Amino acid sequence: MRKNNVLLLSLVALFLIWALSSCVIYCSNCGCHFNSKYEREVQLETDMCDGLTFAAQTSHSYLHIWGIDENHCYVTAHIRVQADTEEKAKEVAEKVTVDLEKSANRVTTVVQKPKVPYKYQVFVSYEVKLPRKTSVELETTHDPIECRNLLGNVVASTTHAPIVCENIVGNLNLTTTHDPIRLSHITGQIKARTSHDPIEAEYITGPLDLQTSHDRIRCTNLNTERLKARTTHDNVEISFTSMNDPEIDADISTSHGHIVFHLPDGFKGSLSMSTSHGKVRTGVPLTVKGEISEKFISGTIGEGKGTIRLKTTHGSINLK
């Protein structure tokens, strides 16, 4: 017993040493051991006609975009520097320049940073107001992206931070990891990818292709005839607005989670539901094809071209 206790204490000590060293390495890399920082703002503006693309690329910094009813672009760049003293942080921050570069079809942010010691950190975040009829291409890491009130396409990529899009007419291509994607009042084609966090969408008109893992997908008030939603280790819930003669092509799958699918009024077509370790239930009259069991149902509703496929393992399916 004493030998076991000694071994256990040794393992605990080794773990604490490893955790402490990992923390030191992390703090050294991210600069968080510096207590001093300096911040300043740069205001930029330029004429910008409808139909152009605005592009911004940064890291460890946020990107917030708003569409406005003006043919003008306003950019507030927030410059933040972390260093070992406030004087050094200020010295570096004053040497950071931010400009807008214009070409025939786009406006791009351009940042010039001075050479600094490896452990210093320089961050540039953006708040941007631009004409509503603008497409955007945005890339950052470890900080959120928000886009609102645009009549244009959105391409956005970040990591370990959320993406929020609201009131947009245009196609969306969104990628993040370990944080949620939230969509509201979108008209256009949507492709969204994340992991270990939810995807939430409401009042969407247009095709959706959604994928996450280890968290839920929840879509409400959809007006679409094409929907693909995939996750693992969590639930999927789908509901629609009223549509005229919907010919929906829906492919919904998860594992270790439940599926709740609210069928839109007037749907006609084929439907299949299957699970491995759960039950399938329907509150909708079906004309059943072949065998029926508590784990599998395949049938039709009326005569139509719609197709709905619902599949899970270790969960149940409820058709309402």
Strand elements, count: 27
Largest sheet: 14 strands, mixed
| pLDDT < 50 runs, ≥5 residues | 17-31
Output the helix-strand order: HEEEEHEEEEEEEEEEEEEEEEEEEEEEE
Tell me the Rg in angstroms.
25 Å
Instruction: Measure the end-to-end span.
Output: 59 Å
The helix-and-strand class reads mainly beta
Shape: elongated
Strand content: over 45%
Mean pLDDT: 90
Count of DSSP helices?
2
Helicity level: 10-25%
Strand order of the largest sheet: 5-6-2-8-10-12-14-16-18-20-26-22-25-24
Would you write up a description of this structure?
This protein is elongated. The chain has helices at 2-30, 86-95; strands spanning 36-47, 53-57, 63-68, 72-83, 97-102, 106-112, 121-131, 135-139, 145-150, 154-157, 163-169, 172-175, 181-187, 190-193, 199-205, 208-211, 217-223, 226-230, 236-240, 249-253, 259-261, 269-274, 280-282, 287-288, 296-301, 306-311, 317-319. The longest helix is centred in the first third of the chain and has 29 residues, at 2-30. It has a domain at 180-320. The strands form two sheets. It has a 14-stranded mixed sheet, with no helix packed on it. It has a 13-stranded mixed sheet with strand order 1-4-7-3-9-11-13-15-17-19-21-27-23, covered by helices on one side. The chain is mainly beta. The protein has two helices and 27 strands.
